[in-house]
Design goal:
Helix content: 25-40%
Organism: Belnapia rosea
Largest sheet: 12 strands, mixed
Pfam family, one: DUF87
Protein name: Helicase HerA central domain-containing protein
Oligomer: single chain
Distance between the termini: 70 Å
Number of strands: 14
Length: 508
């Protein structure tokens, strides 16, 4: 009897309501259920040779849990990008972004709870390892306020957590292995549930594999892999031979989220197709040899060179996609306010913003929390119903955090600075304006602590990454003076800060 795909369902238990994902059927015909909430606390390891149905299993799990939990897929072969069409995953081309850009993107993904597929197909092994490590680092280092549950699926995990050094640079291997170890060993506290899949258990670092408490073991043939699989499932060595006899799509399941004893499971069908499916056998065309020779060996025309494949355009920024999805407010027929009224309203809004930022902890609170505080204070001041939306509030907040003097705020140079800041992502505009304000007034370059406060974090390393990303976008140029103090130049405008110590304390 054909197994039908079942959507995730809530199953009543003695401890309350739990979310269970239907993976398929057991040998006895009962549904093979995976406890999603238990999985978030205990992690999963999937093993199977090429063609065993490992990627099919991951796809079934991702499809069944897409409605319940945020997902991130590290995809070295581009197999899972088809999830975007049906389940709305954001696809990020890893080859089109730098490591710093991917790290910032990962932080924003957790802040906005967007499910994502990181496609690494266009990179060599070392490039895949470095970008995957940067992306996992961004997921791991996000502020505590964004530690919400997230499934992190890493396909072909032996590439990112190898047992031994290979042909890649040792630095790349250490960075990638460290990121995978953080995911599996320390990710649970941060809401990250690692799901790693590998073709070869013997090639996967033991300290990464050992952190998984749930296992789905598929077909494998090498003795060393069968022995490790049997050991992880608590089976005797003489039983390891059974892994050779497993059919495609059949796995042995064990773990608190699956079964208390090794349980044979047959994975059910999926709703999306993989781009990595093996080609089917097709008959060769019936064509005379001489005709084939004439077609294949025909010299190219000199005026028609062989076309080159052009790379696809880079995907838009995550925040830009979210902003594009925001509904456009209906037009109003009210007459526009006079310039004097606009100026008075702006001064009152700036006064309210100063009240919000008067709290020393305001620089480290999430923007939505500050926005709610801002709206409440505006209503107390009776500023009317036409208040800034969240996007406009981010711009006002960035200008206020820069602490620009009144005489500078009225200048044409400051208008140019705000226009330049608008080309950067919202969360980086405050950092840019802080640097621009220092450059326009001839003040020392802000310290890492001051930049971190403008960025909304206490982490100096995140502040330095933000500074590096702004420079990567061509908005600024940083250089040290002879004593090691930092100088920042606003690119295109020529404004330059005085030298400043990066490790100086931030002003309260």
């Amino acid at each position: 009897m054909k197994t039908l795909f079942m959507e995730p369902r809530r199953c009543a238990t003695t401890t309350g309501m739990t979310v269970s994902i239907d993976l398929g059927q057991t040998d006895g015909g009962a549904p093979a259920l995976l406890d999603l909430e238990e999985l978030l606390a205990t992690r999963l390891l999937v093993q199977g040779n090429s063609g065993s149905g490992k990627s099919h299993l991951l796809r079934r799990l991702l499809e069944g849990s897409a409605a319940w939990v945020q997902q991130a897929v590290i995809d070295p072969e581009g197999d899972f990008v088809t999830l975007a069409e049906r389940y709305g995953h954001l696809v990020i081309d890893g080859a089109a972004h730098s490591e710093a850009g991917l790290q910032l993107a990962a932080e924003r993904i957790r802040q906005h709870r967007v499910s994502v597929v990181l496609d690494l197909e266009g990179l060599d092994t070392e490039g895949q390892m470095r970008r995957a490590a940067a992306f996992l680092g961004g997921l791991f280092d996000v502020d505590r306020s964004h530690w919400t549950p997230m499934l992190v699926v890493v396909d072909e995990a032996q590439l990112f957590a190898p047992m031994a050094a290979g042909e890649v640079a040792d630095e790349a291997r250490k960075v990638s292995l460290g990121a995978m170890t953080n995911l599996m060993c320390r990710g649970r506290k941060r809401g990250l549930a690692g799901i790693i899949a590998t073709q070869r258990l013997a090639k996967l670092a033991k300290n990464v594999a050992a952190e998984a408490s749930n296992f789905l073991m598929g077909r494998t043939f090498l003795d060393i892999d069968m022995a490790r699989a049997a050991d992880l499932l608590g089976m005797e060595k003489r039983q390891a031979e059974m892994f050779r006899d497993l059919r495609q799509g059949h796995f042995m399941a064990l773990g608190p989220a699956l079964a208390r004893r090794p349980l044979p499971v047959r994975i059910g069908p999926v709703q999306t197709e993989s781009r990595g499916a093996a080609p089917k056998l097709t008959p060769l065309p019936a064509q005379p040899l001489e005709d084939a020779r004439a077609i294949i060996l025909q010299p190219p025309a000199p005026e028609a060179p062989r076309p080159r494949r052009t790379p696809p355009p880079p995907p838009p920024d995550i925040l830009a996609q979210l902003a594009a999805a925001r509904p456009t407010p209906p037009p109003t027929a009210l007459p526009p306010p006079s310039p004097e009224a606009e100026a008075a309203q702006r001064r009152r809004l700036e006064a309210v913003m100063r009240q919000v930022l008067a709290d020393p902890e305001s620089g480290y609170r999430p923007v939505p929390v500050l926005y709610q505080d801002f709206l409440v204070r505006c209503r107390i001041e009776q500023l009317g119903s036409k208040l800034p939306d969240l996007v406009a509030f981010r711009r006002l907040l960035a200008i206020a955090k820069a602490g620009v003097p009144a005489e500078v705020a009225e200048s044409a140079d400051w208008a140019e600075a705000t226009a330049r800041a608008a080309t950067l992502p919202d969360d980086l505009q405050g950092v840019f304006l802080l640097l621009a304000q220092a450059a326009l007034t001839g003040a020392p370059c802000p310290s890492d602590a001051a930049i971190a406060r403008a960025y909304g974090t206490r982490s100096a390393s995140r502040a330095r990454r933000a500074l590096g990303f702004i420079e990567e976008q061509g908005a600024i140029v940083t250089r040290p003076d002879l004593t090691g103090r930092r100088i920042v130049t606003i690119a295109g405008a020529g404004w330059e800060t005085a030298p400043g110590h990066p490790e100086a304390e931030a002003a309260a």
